[in-house]
């Protein structure tokens, strides 16, 4: 008896990594199931059997991206001084965004920018991740206020929103071809804003 119709065996972790890289490079909407199956080295039925749907595969790919690329942010926020943590947040991610061994930019920022009806779930997923990033940074700044590292009157919410916006802007500039060196002046100017905003009145 032949084995026609049996799912092709494959390395799920390797296939997921390939899907992550494709989503990162092209975005959710510009990546078709056929594209994914080809990149992952499997047939579409095996993709559906293993991952459920394109949207579910995207969610797993985003989780993998966070595990691999989120280390730049985690290391930055472990800096003992708040200013150093924020500067490292921008610098570490700028390094990652311009790394030529991977797609440029940030998958969480750029993975599903414009939301068509069939991409609402993916867009909502990334919006929630970006919101969580703002909340994480604000908690770090709130802790600095509590520890006396920042003035009590510091508007930590406004600072978190501003620096996450800078971070997202760096990702877009990297996607457009900016080098790490070209992004440094943006970081320098952003840190001048920090110094102004955190100077006691």
Shape: elongated
From the 3D structure, determine the CATH topology of the largest domain.
Answer: Tetracycline Repressor, domain 2
Give the number of DSSP strands. 0
Poorly predicted regions: 1-6
- CATH class group of the largest domain: Mainly Alpha
Helix content class: 55-70%
Largest sheet: none
3D architecture notes:
By secondary structure, the chain is mostly helical. The protein folds into 2 domains: 12-64, Arc Repressor Mutant, subunit A, CATH 1.10.10; 70-197, Tetracycline Repressor, domain 2 (Orthogonal Bundle). It is built from 10 helices and no strands. The chain has helices at 12-26, 33-40, 44-51, 54-69, 71-77, 82-97, 107-110, 120-147, 156-175, 180-197. The relative contact order is 0.12.
List keywords for this structure.
disordered N terminus, 201 residues, mainly alpha, Arc Repressor Mutant, subunit A, Tetracycline Repressor, domain 2, 2 domains, 10 helices
Concise description?
It is built from ten helices and no strands.
Give the topology:
Layout: H1 12-26, H2 33-40, H3 44-51, H4 54-69, H5 71-77, H6 82-97, H7 107-110, H8 120-147, H9 156-175, H10 180-197
Helix pairs in contact: 1-2, 1-4, 4-8, 5-6, 6-9, 6-10, 8-9, 9-10
């Amino acid at each position: 008896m032949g084995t026609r119709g049996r799912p092709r065996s494959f390395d799920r972790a390797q296939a997921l990594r390939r899907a992550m890289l494709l989503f990162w490079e092209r975005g959710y909407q510009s990546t078709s199931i056929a594209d994914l199956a080809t990149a992952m080295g499997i047939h579409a039925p095996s993709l559906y059997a293993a991952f459920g749907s394109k949207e579910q595969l995207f969610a797993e790919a985003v989780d993998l991206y966070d595990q691999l690329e989120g280390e730049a942010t985690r290391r930055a926020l472990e800096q003992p001084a708040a200013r150093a943590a924020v500067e490292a947040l921008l610098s570490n991610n700028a390094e990652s965004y311009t790394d030529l061994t991977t797609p440029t930019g940030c998958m969480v920022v750029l993975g599903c920018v414009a939301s068509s009806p069939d991409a609402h779930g993916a867009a909502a997923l990334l919006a929630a991740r970006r919101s969580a990033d703002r909340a994480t940074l604000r908690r770090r700044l709130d802790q600095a206020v509590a520890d006396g590292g920042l003035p009590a009157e510091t508007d930590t919410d406004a600072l978190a929103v501003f620096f996450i916006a800078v971070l997202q802007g760096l990702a877009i500039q990297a996607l457009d071809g900016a080098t790490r060196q070209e992004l440094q002046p943006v970081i320098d100017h952003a840190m001048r804003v920090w110094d102004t905003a955190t100077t006691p009145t």
